């Protein structure tokens, strides 16, 4: 959005947190993209696994072979869900620090649902554990047992909508003054297409994972799933990955791209997304060749398919970030300018206040290097001194700057205290000619 | 704070964070840090019996595995999600504070995350391979080694997070320095760690006792030595916990000197400080008595008594957590940001121009004769709502009524003279950040809400936010350098 439009549309331009980023921005972005993809991989596996368990267990009511299959899939969910949660921390941290204002504003505007993630996910996890560890206890009450996993699936299907609503709303500051409550934000243009894209990806990723997991020599598919042919099971997973990805490429992907506000889609982001789609298409071609071959060669291309899809996902994740960067750039620039102005205003008001209160600034140069320990000693020596209002260090000049009430604490006393800490201070020369330390009234504030 | 403000007017924003955080600390201390080392040790002791008494060794191992199942499920559901929940709720209640903390502590939290991943991976390997490891001796030895690694990582996650907690109470030299290391290694770090470690071990033992009351009921042969050993564990850690608590207890007044400028604050603190001594004595004594009983006569120790220590220790931990209320307030980040999310450095500006004049999300950029209630509501949201509700938990209406002579009516004149001085009366209150007109509007709003019991105060999550259009236009003028005095 161009800057003039920001002002016309009543878009809020809030102030940013006035502290520097902890790491270079490109590094934080890289951490965000990579850790998010890792997180979403396990989220896909957790959700896809739960949906497939439910499907297999329902089918198992009529055909007991599928009940065994459901139990086998269920074994993987609780592991994947733990990794999904723990891997979610890094992208949460990174988006918090990179897009503090945008992310937190979206969170607040959907606040009750946002914090609702905690009990909803907790309940889903407890249901999944009950389902997994009480399988035998529920042997005679199959429907109740299915209800456990069905409830978990419902919860797990809803939670991604909360996340998507938030990451979507953060992109559109012009909507912040217009939404009221979670649902109004959920129905903004891009959320539902993204949700369908995510659901299809969950099934595709889980299909591919189960294929790899059950294909391993050490798995013992014959003993674990009696009644099933090896090819029969593996083809199910491969087929699931194939058809959901084809659906993604033909329908859901284009739908997603088309519902993005086009003024922010640049060749960078569109190019990255299309490149991702191209690599995914190649992966599907390999998968198709595999599927058409005989059972004994099934999975011949699996390594290549997995590699190609990993690359596709990296492209997609980068394209997603490129879009975010472009769409937020003008607003972020406006915000940075306002933040800077606010800091100046605030500083001027503070100096004004100091002047009224009869406060003086004193800069003291110290001979010893102001290392970490010395700085700490100084702070501790003055922290409970009411007359000292502010104390900062200039490490380049090796000086300590005191803002203090001269009437209650003579400068000489400050020098003495520093010397008590075994620091040699450079005192002002009484004649007032060459001075390293200087006492001066704070310059008159420049108030715009 | 320049964010749309989430607000829960009945439950209270503070209570939202407190509920989630307390649950998390209990699960973390009792189950992750304290319980895991005991479980690994018990597994090892059972393993050593495999030659002399294979029958007992098998039952023993099974009981220990089953109590670990409980620990495993609770830590990976309630523990993990309340950990995330502290983030989610803090980002709603005080985004300015969390946003500032993360810019200082990104490194610490990132390191914490790496260790946290390892902790989760190890706990899954440890628990999920338990049965399989029983098939051979080498597998069991490896299993116990995995358990040991898990113990180390769960302690480390606490050691890092305590640094951040300690920072919020006492920023050390950070306000002058603003570097990571000066924030992390602050005066309260070591006392906290020395106190929390043995307390977590005690809680782990107490939790194990509670579980043994259920899971070892049908296997008396294993119950007796298991209860006896767990009691011994509690007995060994209790003196260390007492020393850690005493050290922390003695350290607190030292850390408090600068934070309690008023006599009333000092008295509230002294009351709490002396009641803390009682809590320490009762918790330690009771732990020692029950642990001695369990150690000497495990057979006679009834299940009900086995549930007592964990309850007492929860109270113990809870009382100590209150210290943060005393030490931290009126700040959320010491000497930098007040509990209302406003930076100390911005106070002169707000007091000169008004809080509303610099707010982005208000429909009243200035107080006028016909908008006092609406403006007062915005002042309340900006200056009070992080800790207070209008008529729910910690309600301002109730607070002011309690202060009035008859306890029932609000006196606007008294309120107006009290609010500008409240930070001198109650050490935990930040100073009022607005102008005199904003103070009047705030009082008008509180009186209005008292008279209109049907009106509520919705948060940004219910009604959305208004955007101050004037503010946007004005800052645009400034940007172009065409004048524009605030």
Question: What's the structural blueprint in terms of helices and strands?
Answer:
The complex is a heterodimer of chains A (448) and B (486).
Chain A lengths: L2 H6 L16 H36 L3 H35 L1 H10 L1 H23 L8 H28 L3 H4 L5 H5 L4 H25 L5 H4 L5 H30 L7 H26 L9 H55 L2 E8 L5 H11 L5 E7 L4 E7 L5 H10 L4 E2 L11 E4 L7
Antiparallel strand pairs in A: 1-3, 1-4, 1-5, 2-3
Helix pairs in contact in A: 2-3, 2-6, 2-9, 2-13, 3-4, 3-5, 4-6, 5-6, 6-9, 9-11, 11-12, 12-13
Chain B lengths: L12 H36 L5 H40 L1 H34 L1 H4 L3 H33 L4 H4 L2 H5 L4 H27 L4 H37 L6 H34 L6 H4 L1 H14 L1 H6 L2 E3 L3 E2 L8 H7 L18 H12 L12 H8 L8 H7 L3 H4 L10 H16 L8 H4 L5 H12 L6
Antiparallel strand pairs in B: 1-2
Helix pairs in contact in B: 1-2, 1-5, 1-8, 2-3, 2-8, 2-9, 3-5, 5-8, 8-9, 8-12, 9-10, 10-12, 15-19
Descriptive account of the structure:
The complex is a heterodimer of chains A (448) and B (486). Chain A has 448 residues and is an alpha+beta fold. Chain A folds into 2 domains: 3-339, no CATH class; 357-441, Alpha-Beta Plaits (2-Layer Sandwich). Chain A has 15 helices and 5 strands. In chain A, strands 1, 2, 3, 4 and 5 form a 5-stranded antiparallel beta sheet that branches. The longest helix of chain A is centred in the last third of the chain and has 55 residues, at 302-356. Chain A is elongated, with a radius of gyration of 31 Å. Chain B folds into 2 domains: 13-338; 344-480, Cytochrome Bc1 Complex, Chain D, domain 2, CATH 1.10.760. Chain B contains 21 helices and 2 strands. Chain B has a two-stranded antiparallel ribbon. In chain B, helix 2 packs parallel to helix 9 and helix 3 runs antiparallel to helix 5 (137-169). Chain B is elongated, with a radius of gyration of 27 Å. The two termini of chain B are 18 Å apart.
């Amino acid at each position: 959005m161009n800057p003039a439009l920001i002002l016309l549309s009543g878009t809020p331009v809030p102030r940013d947190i006035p502290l520097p980023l902890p790491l270079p921005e490109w590094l934080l972005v890289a951490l965000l993209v990579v850790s998010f993809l890792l997180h979403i991989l396990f989220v896909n596996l957790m959700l896809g696994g739960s949906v497939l368990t439910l499907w297999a267990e329902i089918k198992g009511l009529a055909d007991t072979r599928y009940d065994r299959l459901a139990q086998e899939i269920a074994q993987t969910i609780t592991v994947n869900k733990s990794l999904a949660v723990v891997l979610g921390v890094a992208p949460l941290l990174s988006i918090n620090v990179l897009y503090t204002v945008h992310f937190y504003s979206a969170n607040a505007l959907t606040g009750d649902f946002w914090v609702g993630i905690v009990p909803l996910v907790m309940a889903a996890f407890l249901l999944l554990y009950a389902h997994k560890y009480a399988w035998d206890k529920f042997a005679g009450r199959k429907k109740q047992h299915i209800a456990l996993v069905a409830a978990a699936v419902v919860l797990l299907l809803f939670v991604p909508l909360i996340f998507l609503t938030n990451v979507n709303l953060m992109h559109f500051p012009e909507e912040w003054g217009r939404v009221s409550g979670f649902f109004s934000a959920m129905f903004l243009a891009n959320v539902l297409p993204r949700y369908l894209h995510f659901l299809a990806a969950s099934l595709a990723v889980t299909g591919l994972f189960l294929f790899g997991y059950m294909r391993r020599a050490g798995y013992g598919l014959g003993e674990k799933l009696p009644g099933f042919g090896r090819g029969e099971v593996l083809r199910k997973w491969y087929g699931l990955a194939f058809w959901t990805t084809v659906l993604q490429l033909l329908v859901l992907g284009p739908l997603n791209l088309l519902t993005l506000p086009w003024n922010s889609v640049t060749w960078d982001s569109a190019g990255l997304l299309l490149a991702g789609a191209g690599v995914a298409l190649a992966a599907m071609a390999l998968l198709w060749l595999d599927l058409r071959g005989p059972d004994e060669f099934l999975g011949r291309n699996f390594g290549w398919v997995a590699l190609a899809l990993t690359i596709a996902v990296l492209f997609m994740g980068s394209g997603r970030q490129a879009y975010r960067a472009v769409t937020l750039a003008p607003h972020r620039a406006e915000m940075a300018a306002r933040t800077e102005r606010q800091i100046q205003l605030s500083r001027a008001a503070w100096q004004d206040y100091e002047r009224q209160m009869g406060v003086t600034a004193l800069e003291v140069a110290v001979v010893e290097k102001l290392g970490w320990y010395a700085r700490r000693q100084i702070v501790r020596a003055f922290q409970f001194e009411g007359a000292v209002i502010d104390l900062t260090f200039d490490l380049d000049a090796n000086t300590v700057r005191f803002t203090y009430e001269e009437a209650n604490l003579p400068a000489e006393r400050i020098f003495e205290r520093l010397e008590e800490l075994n620091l040699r201070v450079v005192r002002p020369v009484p004649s007032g000619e060459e001075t390293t330390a200087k006492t001066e009234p704070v310059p008159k504030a420049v108030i715009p | 704070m320049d964010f749309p403000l989430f607000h829960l007017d009945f439950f209270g924003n503070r209570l939202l964070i407190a509920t989630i955080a307390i649950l998390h600390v209990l699960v973390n201390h009792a189950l992750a840090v304290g319980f895991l080392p005991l479980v690994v040790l018990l597994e090892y002791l059972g393993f050593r019996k495999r030659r002399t008494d294979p029958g007992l060794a098998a039952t023993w191992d099974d009981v220990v595995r089953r109590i670990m199942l409980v620990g495993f499920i609770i830590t990976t559901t309630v523990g993990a999600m309340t950990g995330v929940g502290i983030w989610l709720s803090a980002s709603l209640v005080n985004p300015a504070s969390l946003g500032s903390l993360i810019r200082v502590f990104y490194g610490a939290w990132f390191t914490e995350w790496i260790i946290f991943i390892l902790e989760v991976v190890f706990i899954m390997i440890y628990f999920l391979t338990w049965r399989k490891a029983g098939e051979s001796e080498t597998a069991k030895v490896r299993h116990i080694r995995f358990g040991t690694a898990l113990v180390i990582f769960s302690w480390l996650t606490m050691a890092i997070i305590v640094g951040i907690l300690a920072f919020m109470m006492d920023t050390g030299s950070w306000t002058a320095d603003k570097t990571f290391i000066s924030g992390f290694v602050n005066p309260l770090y070591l006392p906290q760690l020395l106190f929390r470690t043995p307390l977590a071990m005690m809680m782990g033992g107490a939790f194990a006792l509670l579980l043994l009351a259920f899971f070892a009921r049908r296997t008396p042969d294993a119950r007796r030595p298991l209860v006896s050993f767990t009691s011994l564990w509690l007995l060994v850690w209790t003196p260390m916990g007492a020393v850690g608590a005493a050290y922390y207890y003695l350290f607190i007044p030292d850390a408090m000197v600068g934070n309690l400028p008023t006599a009333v604050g000092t008295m509230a603190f002294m009351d709490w400080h002396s009641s803390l001594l009682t809590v320490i004595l009762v918790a330690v004594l009771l732990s020692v008595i029950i642990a001695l009983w369990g150690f000497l006569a495990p057979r006679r120790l009834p299940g009900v008594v086995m549930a007592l220590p964990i309850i007492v220790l929860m109270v113990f931990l809870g009382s100590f957590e209150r210290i943060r209320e005393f030490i931290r307030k009126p700040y959320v980040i010491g000497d930098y940001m007040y509990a209302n999310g406003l930076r100390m450095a911005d106070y002169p500006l707000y007091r000169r121009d008004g809080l509303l004049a610099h707010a982005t999300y208000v429909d009243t950029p200035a107080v006028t004769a016909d908008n006092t209630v609406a403006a007062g509501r915005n002042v309340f949201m900006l200056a009070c709502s992080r800790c207070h509700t209008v008529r729910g938990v910690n309600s301002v209406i109730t607070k002011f009524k309690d202060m009035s002579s008859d306890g029932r009516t609000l006196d606007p004149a008294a309120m107006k003279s009290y609010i500008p001085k409240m930070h001198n009366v109650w050490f935990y209150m930040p100073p009022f950040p607005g102008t005199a007109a904003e103070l009047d509007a705030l009082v008008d709003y509180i009186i209005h809400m008292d008279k209109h019991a049907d009106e509520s105060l919705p948060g940004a999550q219910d009604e959305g936010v208004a955007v101050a259009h004037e503010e946007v236009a004005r800052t645009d003028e400034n940007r172009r350098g065409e004048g524009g005095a605030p």
